[in-house]
Amino acid sequence: MAPTPEQWARIQRMFHDVADLPAGDRTVALRRACDGDDDLYGAVLRLLEQDGRGDSIIDADVYAVAGRLLAPPSDRGTDQRAAAAVGTVTTTPVTLGPYRVIRLLGAGGMGVVYLAERADVGQRVAIKILRDVWVSPAGRVRFASEQRALARLNHHAIAKLLDADALPDGTPWFAMEYVEGMSLTEYCRSNDLDLHPRLRLFRHVCDAVRHAHQHLVIHRDLKPSNILVSSDGVVKLLDFGIAKQLETLDAPMDRTNTLFRMMTPNYAAPEQVIHGDAGVASDVYSLGVILYELLTGTVPTDFGAMTPVEAQTALQREPAKPSAVARATSYAALTGKAGWDDLDVLCLTAMHKDAARRYRSVEALLRDVEHFAHGEPLEARPDSLRYRAGKFMRRNARRLGATAAILAVVTSLIAFYTLRLNRANAAAHAEAARTERIQQFMLNLFDAGETDAAPASDLRVITLVDRGVQEARGLDGEPAIQAALYQTLGSLYQRLGNYDRADTLLQSALDERRRLGGVDGRDALDSLVAVGLLRIDQAKLEDAERLARQALDAAHRTLPADDRLVARATAAFGKVLEERGEYGQAITQLTEAVRLYSASDDTAPDLSAAISELADAHFYAGHLETSEALNKRALDLDRRIRGARHPNVGDDLLNLGAIASNREQYEEATRYYREALDIMQGWYGEKHPQTASAQTILAQGLTFLGHFDEAAPLFTRALATQETAYGPVNRRVSFVLNELGQLELRRNHVDAAQHALTRALDINRELYGSQHFRVANSLANLAGVYFARDDFPRAEQLLREAVDIFTATLTADHVNTGVAEIKLGRVLSREHRSREAEEHLQRGLAVVKKQTKPPASWVKTATEELAALGN
């Protein structure tokens, strides 16, 4: 009887505990650990015997390995089948799961890689089989760990893990995205690229490695041949198959097994070559070598023809400066002398022999590459006198004497604390003055304008904000307070939808704070984040990303890691990425923001907002269960810190309703929506944009339930409110129009539906450009109008455009892409193009079924359409 998962986990754990012991000690240790459990003892003993056999597959030639892996059990081991399976197309096609093997792509110490094709959708993939996964259970565990690591990586410059399975005998394999292109260095040479195009490609590589590190994965074998560039300049990193999860870096490993110390010495860090130690620092070193080669055409040290003794000596030598190597070649023309000075610093800092003296992270390296590209000072500097003096003192500590050391420490402490106390005292006085001035400012806001009258009873919010601006303009003698008030008032205008006035005030706050405290001053960075967030509402997403990234980089560079502003900048950058449809990267940033806010006791409101934003990113990425759990966490937190009738609670309920609606649980969704609208209306009143948003969402749920008469007036009121508040071109207006169009289409009011959906499409194109998922949504919805009119060619055109945009912005496996494919299949079926219709229906159905909670209506639609095609 096969062991249960729990038993198998215990067997594996026991195996790892004793596998590295000397052979004579294993049996005794195993007997003691099993404590009389003969079944456990026998199972582990059999694994130890298998692991120790001399005929392990690890000792076989890789081509024989490939033959054994792909041959049927009865043929395994025959030379004829092994030859046929490797490098040639066999007369009897070899298949792995749904994939048909076409040819061998490559082989090496790690194993073999094949080009294969998925028959049902025609997708070409690279299938990888590690030759040591038969060696032992430990090998299989590592292989499974590798799959999990790969699956966590979702970056445009990393080849994706698409599938994983096992051969009939249990040998695992996985399918990766197939990438055609040249190696990074070959691409640069063949296209004779100048410096800045080379750095642009290198920045993409760094960004991909940074993404992997943020997901606790290192590469360990970065080199140009693992970085392919397609003909149109798209970078893809390959072979994260030997990646190692950071959280297990200290786990014991059999260092005699050379397969798990695979590296390319020319690009490997000294500690990696000598000790087998690999981590973030070793990946940084490898990136430094790659940059060195891009700048000079050669590696700093070529170990290829060296003896072990020569290699050991070479590891201790400092490499020549890139500028010196390039000077004698055509590479010298890449940049001028001043440029080479900074490039020397970049490369040599990344490749420092002392790992502690390298860039602390790939992100730090990437920041300096960005600084160089923009003509800004680098964060890294050559080794300084201070650093060399420190080295000298450590080498000669005993000779310097204890008295001098104590005197230096005492003097330093006195100076440090005196300076700190003076600063704290000055800051306390400044803060007290600022608080008093702001209190007076707030009192003046509520003054009706007459000194002998009570505060006006009919003041509106907009009146108060306008009065606040007038008050703030009178504070020219107190610029720090004036800038703080400008930022607060600008944020209020932003919430009221008056983006022009918000822009003026927030930009004024930013300019003043930069004048007072410098470009990277803390207050200036806070204002920079605020302007970046405003750019999102203004639909200026490129500017928003640039400002948010600039603020985050500066915050990392100048502030402590646990500073609240670091968390705020991280959350803002994540929000921008979410708005741009880059959900994988957005989730990474927002997860980090939640972690940072969670570490502090006084950031509960900010934590709630970050959790909600993270939940939104997971929702748009199709991760409904994760989004639901996060929204419930935000709901509990908001109820606790704000009360049950706060609009943030309403937002949380709307989000939970959207998840239920996405699962086609419309009754449950509508219950959430009604409760949320009741909260919003009680807080804001009837004619407020937030109330209108809740009305729109409730009307959407009622539409799905077929309650058209109740939904229609809600849409009408919401549209009027949003247009009054924001004008005719705004994403909130577009949202109402889109949902109103769906209602009219269901009521068979085709002209009204076309008018609303065309307006929504025009607004989204004006706001986001042509390549955005919201534009794709509008295209797919408008196609429904032409479908209803039997204008199938026009519907087909719109849906094909929608599928292309969804695929580019959300990936081919996103539920929105799948639904659009099904819609396109329906249209093609009506055009009597059965073969094409079936292809799109099958593709869409496969995507929809992959979802954790597949939308039943679209599964049903696709299934019925396919059945009709078969008749």
How is this structure best summarized?
The chain is mainly α and 871 residues long. Among the domains are: 5-51; 57-177, Phosphorylase Kinase, domain 1 (2-Layer Sandwich); 191-391, Transferase(Phosphotransferase), domain 1 (Orthogonal Bundle); 769-870, Tetratricopeptide repeat domain (Serine Threonine Protein Phosphatase 5, Tetratricopeptide repeat, Alpha Horseshoe).
How would you describe the overall organization of this protein?
By secondary structure, this protein is mainly alpha-helical. The strands form 3 sheets. It has a 6-stranded antiparallel beta sheet, with helices on both faces. The longest helix has 44 residues. The two termini are 46 Å apart.
CATH class (first level) name of the domain at 191-391: Mainly Alpha
Shape: globular
Provide the gyration radius in Å.
Answer: 32 Å
Instruction: Spell out the CATH superfamily of the domain at 191-391.
Output: Transferase(Phosphotransferase) domain 1
The tally of strands reads 11
In which order are the strands of the major sheet placed? 1-2-3-4-6-5
Structural class: mainly alpha
Oligomeric form of this entry? Answer: single chain
In angstroms, what separates the terminal alpha carbons? 46 Å
Q: What is the architecture of the domain at 191-391 at the second tier of CATH?
A: Orthogonal Bundle
Quote the average pLDDT. Answer: 77
Could you name the CATH topology of the domain at 191-391? Transferase(Phosphotransferase), domain 1
Task: Please work out how many helical segments DSSP would assign.
Answer: 37
Low-pLDDT stretches are 54-92, 241-262, 383-419, 421-460
Which range best describes the helical content: under 10%, 10-25%, 25-40%, 40-55%, 55-70% or over 70%? Answer: 55-70%
Strand content: 5-15%
Sheet having the most strands? 6 strands, antiparallel
